[in-house]
């Protein structure tokens, strides 16, 4: 294979980037590392740990490129033909940022503890911390830094300070092994790029984008231009990654899979152009429908964006004719039910492979509804279906829609609630019965009960601050809130019964408000239910009456544990597992690797399926994206209890076939 093997030190490589002698082909994804990851890279280099090799490409045919996420550079054409970086972008970009003192890579070094982190207000005031750039930037001298740090830290041995700073400066001389591919066409380079990154943090959508950029130069610019258009229209989640999904789904007629890349390579220019036109046309029809008919003013409201994909294909490929009222209602009905049923929370690409093809058949709306299993039924939201649901549930999204539809207003400003409000009017969710009055109450309310969506209302940030931890018995009749009227509370589906304003009757309050919310949600669904759908008994929500609650018991000296309590069909399952074990398994999943989690003494596989991470916990197979899993972990850390309070857990073995459960619904 035509491969050159070279070595360059970090200082040389950073200089090549500044001079444009190392560039990024369009095939690359964007820079994604966070400051913590950058700090870990610098620490690894400081400690002499292996740092991996680099893969580059030399070609006489200048490919489409994308900018490197750095500051500086002379902007002039390189004096020598550039090399194109295929593997190592995150590391080299991070090193350039640190050495050039980029504002988003202000990595600092603690001379006393030899720790690394991003600059903060605390480290800026602490004399033990120094900027790494002070000794790594071009022309930097060690001696002035050593003198300065010795003066700031008189209790430390100056020789030790000098030794550590000199060791830090040696990072510039660390050498990277480089493999330079030559004599390869762009199409083959794309295949190499995909294979090199398979099983790595690069996700299926990133690999699809890499394949598309090789097959269809200029597509990244089209995607980013389209993403900017939607960001200006408050649908910023329709980013390049989402648009890649939409384009590949349109061209392939299904979700992504292992054979997607070869199929994309084989697609003709006409198929790609037609697919892109479908995506643009579909979005320009769909987004106004969501905004005007459902009052969804921002993509940030949507629990899932995957649910948009079949509708994009359907609307984008329709004949240029008017959309009749029943078809419009059917589209939005499918959207709502698919959302609350978590249609794409698990096996995303399998479900897309079922739904996208039927959008190209006769009666596509009927076929989509058939795939949901609701033709011939009436979907009803019951109070039981809302029990135990919290902010991660799609019913929370539905609760916003019905409040918006009811004309709910803010309890301070009096303006209608809006997801686009800013400043003090920015929308927040508020605990009607504050957590402070419910925690440690003699009634022993659980965390799930306290955070139940029936206890959440949409009000402004200022109103939320003004209420603070006061009971509704106080602030509902506060003159500053203009004595909230029965009509104002009714628009938020809050019962006016004064007896339900006391923490002692909180469970009765939840029952009353769930009843109101469920009725409003069912009415909303019924309004969009097509007339041609026959009346029949309600289609049961498979997660009605189901809940999964985590409580983290944390310690700095012993293994932190998570206690899980699941409710299903009136039965309760309990179990526990180590937090560090879960975090390690998620780290492995970030690299595309399956792992195991020991729960209640049973080894449970944690599997990576496309962009989803799935693990069976008690009666449920819990599924979600890696980002959703990590958000759940961080939320539990915020609510952690001391390990000393860990109860005696009755470990119950799992029985029966597990039901699918989205990680976003864990409380």
What's this, in brief?
By secondary structure, the protein is an alpha+beta fold.
Write the layout of secondary structure elements.
Layout: E1 3-9, H1 10-18, E2 22-25, H2 35-46, E3 54-58, E4 65-66, E5 83-87, H3 89-99, E6 107-110, E7 116-118, H4 121-125, E8 129-131, H5 133-136, H6 142-152, H7 158-169, E9 175-182, H8 186-197, H9 204-215, H10 219-232, H11 240-252, H12 260-266, H13 269-294, H14 308-316, H15 325-340, H16 348-358, H17 364-372, H18 383-386, H19 394-405, E10 427-431, H20 435-438, H21 447-450, E11 456-460, H22 461-467, H23 472-475, H24 486-490, H25 506-528, E12 547-554, E13 561-568, E14 571-578, H26 579-590, E15 595-599, E16 602-609, E17 612-617, E18 620-625, H27 626-638, E19 641-642, E20 659-662
Parallel strand pairs: 2-5, 3-9, 12-19, 18-20
Antiparallel strand pairs: 1-9, 2-4, 3-5, 6-7, 6-8, 10-11, 12-13, 13-14, 15-16, 16-17, 17-18
Helix pairs in contact: 1-3, 6-7, 8-9, 9-11, 9-12, 11-13, 11-14, 13-14, 14-16, 15-17, 15-25, 19-25, 26-27
Tell me how many strands there are. Answer: 20
Q: Quick check: average pLDDT?
A: 88
Radius of gyration: 28 Å
* Uncertain runs: 535-539
Give the helix tally.
27
Anisotropy-based shape: globular
Secondary structure: helix percent: 40-55%
Number of domains: 4
How far the N terminus sits from the C terminus, by CA atoms, comes to 53 Å
Q: Beta-sheet strand percentage?
A: 15-25%
* Strand arrangement in the largest pleated sheet: 1-9-3-5-2-4
SS content category? alpha+beta
The largest β sheet comes out as: 6 strands, mixed
Oligomer: single chain
């Amino acid at each position: 294979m035509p491969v050159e093997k070279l070595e360059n030190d970090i200082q040389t490589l950073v200089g090549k980037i500044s001079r444009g002698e190392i560039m990024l082909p369009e095939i690359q994804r964007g820079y994604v590392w966070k400051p913590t990851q950058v700090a870990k890279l610098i620490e690894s280099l400081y400690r002499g740990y292996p740092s991996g090799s680099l893969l580059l490409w030399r070609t006489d045919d200048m490919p489409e490129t994308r900018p490197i996420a750095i500051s500086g550079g002379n902007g002039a054409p390189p004096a020598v033909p550039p090399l194109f970086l295929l593997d190592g972008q995150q590391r080299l970009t991070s090193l350039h940022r640190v050495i050039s003192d980029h504002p988003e890579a202000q990595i600092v070094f603690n001379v006393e503890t030899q720790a690394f982190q991003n600059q903060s207000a605390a480290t800026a005031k602490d004399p033990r911390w120094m900027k790494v750039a002070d000794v790594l930037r071009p022309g930097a001298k060690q001696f002035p830094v050593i003198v300065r740090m010795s003066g700031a830290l008189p209790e430390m041995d100056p020789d030790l300070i000098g030794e550590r700073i000199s060791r830090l400066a040696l990072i510039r001389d660390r050498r990277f092994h480089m493999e330079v591919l030559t004599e390869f066409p762009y199409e083959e380079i794309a295949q190499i790029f995909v294979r090199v990154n398979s099983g790595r943090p690069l996700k299926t959508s990133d690999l699809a984008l890499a394949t598309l950029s090789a097959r269809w130069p200029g597509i990244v610019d089209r995607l980013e231009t389209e993403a900017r258009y939607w960001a200006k229209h408050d649908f910023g989640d329709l980013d390049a990654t989402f648009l890649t999904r939409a384009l590949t789904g349109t061209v392939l007629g299904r979700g992504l899979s292992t054979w997607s890349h070869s199929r994309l390579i084989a697609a003709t220019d006409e198929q790609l152009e037609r697919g892109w036109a479908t995506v643009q046309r579909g979005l320009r029809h769909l987004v106004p429908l969501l905004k005007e008919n459902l009052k969804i003013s921002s993509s940030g409201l949507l629990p899932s964006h995957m649910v948009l994909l079949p509708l994009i294909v359907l609307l984008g490929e329709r004949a240029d004719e008017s959309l009749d009222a029943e078809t419009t209602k059917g589209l939005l009905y499918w959207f709502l039910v698919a959302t609350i049923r978590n249609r794409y929370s698990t096996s995303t690409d399998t479900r897309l492979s079922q739904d996208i093809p039927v959008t190209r058949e006769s009666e596509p709306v009927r076929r989509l509804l058939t795939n949901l299993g609701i033709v011939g039924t009436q979907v009803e939201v019951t109070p039981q279906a809302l029990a135990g649901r919290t902010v991660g549930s799609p019913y929370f999204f539905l609760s916003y829609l019905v409040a918006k539809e009811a004309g709910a207003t803010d309890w301070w400003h009096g303006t209608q609630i809006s997801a686009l409000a800013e400043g003090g009017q920015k929308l927040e969710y508020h605990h009607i019965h504050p957590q402070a009055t419910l925690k440690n109450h003699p009634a022993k309310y659980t965390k799930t009960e306290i955070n139940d969506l029936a206890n959440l209302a949409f009000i402004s940030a200022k109103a939320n601050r003004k209420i603070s931890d006061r009971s509704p018995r106080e602030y509902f009749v506060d003159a500053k809130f203009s004595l909230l009227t029965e009509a104002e509370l009714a628009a938020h589906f809050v019962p006016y019964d004064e007896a339900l304003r006391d923490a002692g009757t909180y469970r009765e309050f939840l029952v009353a408000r769930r009843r109101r919310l469920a009725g409003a949600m069912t009415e909303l669904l019924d309004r969009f239910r097509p007339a041609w759908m026959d009346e029949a008994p309600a289609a049961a929500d498979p997660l009605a009456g189901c809940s999964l609650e985590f409580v983290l018991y944390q310690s700095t000296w012993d293994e932190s544990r998570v206690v899980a309590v699941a409710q299903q069909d009136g039965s309760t399952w309990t179990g526990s597992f180590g937090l560090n074990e879960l975090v390690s398994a998620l780290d492995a999943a970030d690299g595309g690797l399956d792992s195991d989690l020991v729960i209640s003494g049973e080894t449970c596989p944690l599997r990576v399926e496309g962009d989803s991470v799935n693990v069976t916990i008690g009666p449920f197979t819990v599924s979600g994206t890696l980002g959703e899993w990590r958000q759940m972990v961080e939320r539990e850390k915020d609510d952690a209890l001391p390990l000393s309070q860990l109860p005696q857990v009755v470990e119950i073995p799992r029985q029966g076939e597990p039901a699918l459960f989205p990680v976003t619904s864990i409380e």
